[in-house]
Records
---
Amino acid sequence: MTETKTFDPRIVLDGARIVAVRLDDDLVVQEVAGDWCDVPVGEDVRESVPALIGLEDELAQDLPYLHLPFVTLGDSHETPAAISVQRDWKSGALWLLLRDVSEEAAIQERLVHQHNALSLAQRELSKARDAALAADKAKTRFLANVSHELRTPLNVVIGGASILLKPRKTALPAEDLHAFVRDIHDSGTLLLQLVDDLIDLSRAETGNLALVEEWSHTGVIVEGMVRLAKALPGAEGIEIVQSGDRVELYADPRRVKQILLNLISNAVKACKPGNRIEIATEQREDGCLVLSVCDNGPGMSKAELTIALEPFGQPKAHDAESGTGLGLPIVARLAELHQARFDIATAPGSGLKASVEFPASRLPAAAR
Amino acid sequence: MKAHKIVVLGDFGVGKTSLIRRYVLDQFSDQYRATLGVHLYKHTDTIAVEGMDREVRLVLWDIEGAPLPGEQMMRYALGASGAIIVGDLTRDDMTAPMRGAADMVEARLPGRPISIALNKSDIAPAPDDDLVATLRDRYGASIALTSAKTGDEVPRLFHALGQRIVGAGDGAV
Ligand SMILES: Nc1nc2c(ncn2[C@@H]2O[C@H](COP(=O)(O)OP(=O)(O)OP(=O)(O)O)[C@@H](O)[C@H]2O)c(=O)[nH]1
Ligand SMILES: [Mg+2]
């Protein structure tokens, strides 16, 4: 037999960065053309090309359709390949083609990366813009609220005073006179309180509220606050008790009292005669000190609580008796200044527990 | 031993590559590098299935992210035994891309288990209980609050899916 030189396409594939692999129906490699990557003959192709794992059903089809444009073995720095599978109609043989796509991949990857990085940055930007707009809105609302809150008691003062100033033939009856003066006095007190609260809040917000910290005794602070609470208007008939550990705390005692007084007066406002308010000091196992004010009053829904935590966020219109509406925001800021965590647990019908958790570092080393 | 194909799907930048690399290589990088096409990771793990430790061979498909599943993502997902769908807890619009991917899995890979990773838990507050329950009930998915950065809940994410794949009998040894 004389050797005839015929054209062998396999020679062309050598060095062409493409490999053609003939498979049998069990996906065992029968023949390999091209030397770009190593696909051992006689072995299950899924060992060298794990991308085919799971695709057995598709490959068993008469007309398998498989084209995976960019596949990289991720744990090494292998070059990305395009993988495709076709069946040769004449012989019925299954052919796998592996092609080096590192050049296309390098360009595409840069494009995809730039696109993704840009659109992530754009999302961040629009998030920041939304936050800035919301902050701006909140500030406007706050200002509108401040003016409203100042107006109401001022109107009472001016209105009452003009009545008193009005020349009249017969003097006002003593009890009317007294009522006007009392209203003016109460409104003046509320105005003063409002201004004080606003100053506190704005100092805390701008970082200008300096704490005067010292070692003080929680027992003494709480006792004083319980006494004060019992004298609050509306406290008659409400049981107010103190419980728990008495420990030394490194804090600003005036501010701790302010925290407690705000929380207690909120509880008193929410409660009716027959309810109970407990002011507890508890040192937890992790060394934190938790001051809490817990009542068994009506409690609040999630939505009501969100409102209550906002400046002036009082669910109902208020008067001298219901305070300034700045109480909870101030408590939150004061707690923050002490690196304490402020938390409210409540649900409609199951009372409310407000707690301030001081870090262990604010307690004497011996007590931690 | 049969190997199982698991696809990891989700929007870009949510941490698919990071979760896989944490699980397989115990590595993490703060640098973002977008994935083009798909990167394959072979990994063998021991997973407890019905009280018995079983060795399981996995091929993890780290697929190029997209806000909506396109032609290419579907092509890559073909033949998977299960899917992990990743969302980024720091995003306001976390769920829409996850639902897109989960719906695609339901349509193209019917009956295959889904595990959901709510990722970047190290820098984001926990999600609403309602949201978690809705996703779980809607897709019969197991859900993990993961951090690829700290590694928190990452093994559990992959093990939960592995258990359901092997437990479903798909994985006769
Ligand atoms: N803080 C934090 N960052 C993470 C976490 N997971 C991922 N990242 C970061 O998020 C960015 C994107 O992570 P990748 O894993 O590349 O995201 P991907 O989903 O693979 O993105 P594509 O490949 O484009 O689809 C990177 O900068 C990561 O470092 C996480 O759990 N916590
Ligand atoms: Mg990736």
Note: The first helix of chain A runs from residue 9 to 13.
---
Amino acid sequence: MTQTAEGTASSSGDTVGMAHMVRPGEVDISHGAILYVEGVTVSFDGFKALNKLSLAIDAGELRCIIGPNGAGKTTMMDVITGKTQPDAGTVFFGQTIDLLKMSEPEIAHAGIGRKFQKPTVFESHTVFENLELAMKMDKGVWSSLRYRISAEQRDRIAETLEHIQLESRAGIAAGLLSHGQKQWLEIGMLLMQDPKLLMLDEPVAGMTDAETERTAELFLSLAGRHSLIVVEHDMDFVSSIARKVTVLHEGRVLAEGPMDVIQNDERVIEVYLGR
Amino acid sequence: MGPIVAFFTRLYGPRGWLTLGGFIAVVLFVIPLLRLLPPEHSLHLSDYFVLLIGKIMCYAMVALAMDLIWGYAGILSLGHGLFFALGGYSMGMYLMREIGTEGQYRSHLPDYMVFLDWKEFPWYWAGSEYFWLAVLKVILVPGLLAFVFGWFAFRSRIKGVYFSIITQALTFAFMLLFFRNDTGFGGNNGFTDFKRILGFPLADPVTKTALFMITGLFLVLTLLACRYLVISKLGRVLAAIRDAEGRAMFSGYKTRDYKLFVWTLSAVMCGIAGALYVPQVGIINPSEMSPANSIEMAIWVAVGGRGTLVGPLFGAGLVNGAKSWFTVAFPDFWLYFLGCLFILATLFLPRGAIGLLDRLRRKT
Ligand SMILES: Nc1ncnc2c1ncn2[C@@H]1O[C@H](COP(=O)(O)OP(=O)(O)OP(=O)(O)O)[C@@H](O)[C@H]1O
Ligand SMILES: [Mg+2]
């Protein structure tokens, strides 16, 4: 394993300088990529939702994934986050972490955060408590029983509340938020987890234009320090943040490249954009 | 002192502690005193009344245990009667040994074993003459069974109605097992005719009063333990699992561990309640494991108000108070009444009696 130029360039600082000394639990991004999906197939009663899907995401990248309904975008996220076991294929987080051998909470601890297509927050808890629950810390039964919030943690939550512009709603039940606010809260919860890779399934659905714009800014500010995979149908939104776009169709990658190239690709227009 | 005071004020506010203090005073002083007054005295409390309150306190502990698992973690168990009965049987085995050779057949074996023509205690009765071992079994038997059952059920991600049905089947299966004479627990008669506990005669009013007080104390401790749990972050995680388990898992919580923990704890609480129940009422038999019994436990919680702890306490009191009156006045109608109560509570009082009180208080 030799040190590569991209490895250093995309380093987040700590272990990349010494590719051979990756600590267990650390994500080894010495080859530049943070996520490898290779030959993944998922069938539901014979129907192939994913069909030998392969894809790699670079560390610090912001990747947009588009595709018509039923293309397999959510299923792909289910596989990466441990919710669905594929019939074939491999999924690696960095060079060393085999995600297919891990449970959902283990994958979350390894540094992958996920926003669901349907916004999912803890509705009977307050906005503050939602963020507190998501915050990165020991999440075992005993530590939860003995946990007391520290001043530092309060500050972190306050910071995130500001970030997602929900300061004034900190004390109300999350179930009372608007759809767009729930989306933001869920994104805030991901940020509290401090993941290396964020996967966001249709994050701007149900948001106002202003909210969508702010979300775009937020994602752009996150890229670099974090890697992001954003699944979206909203083309304007995708154009506003996209660097590299992957088009999924019938469970496999149809095209991949910069947004302007993709937009003019005939096959893409046929299955998706032109309709 | 500071941290200790902070600990207590965190659990309940002044009003809560005052109410709890009042309850403790009544259970530990007022009722025992009135109970021990001479029977001619106009304020003397009857055996029947004290036993009824003692029983209801045991049921109230069960209601707390049910609320923990159902109200907070969202897992509806319809088999908690089993854990209650296992705690009761664990204590009952010891009480049977305390009878000594005073049974009908003057044997060191319980009467039913003599009747079955057994010469020796079966191996699983070993050590049953020791009180400390009985206490240990009260905790371990329901605890272990719940742990093993929960381990498989939660690992297979069995949820909702399926889980409830399996717990019904479990308690039913155990009831059939305990009905058999060969099982060695007295068949359908179960254990009864107890004489002593730790050498104290059970017929003695002082022993009865002491058991009553101990039950009251355990009820208070159980309430405080539950309260500590539900206001901790663990309690919030449980509610998070109830509301959105997927989100909780992707937030890094091993929800299976949490469910297993609270499930086992809840079973142990039921076991303790059963162990306190048996010496007071003087009998334990397999009917405690009947599916209907476990369903009734869920009704106490639904009627009182899920996820409030105090609500289920009231629910247990209310329903059982009504039951003791009904079964005397209109014995044939009790089950209809219970069914109606349950339907009314689910239709009109989603937050139970406590929710109703809350609403009334806000209106005035
Ligand atoms: N659990 C399941 N059982 C059977 N079929 C499923 C299951 N989950 C997904 N599918 C099917 O797999 C295909 C891919 O679904 P998926 O949800 O991944 O699509 P998607 O790209 O996220 O679509 P959308 O844009 O509508 O969210 C669909 O045809 C869907 O019906
Ligand atoms: Mg989808």
Note: The pocket of magnesium ion (ligand 2) is lined by residues A 73-74, 117, 201 (CB under 6 Å).
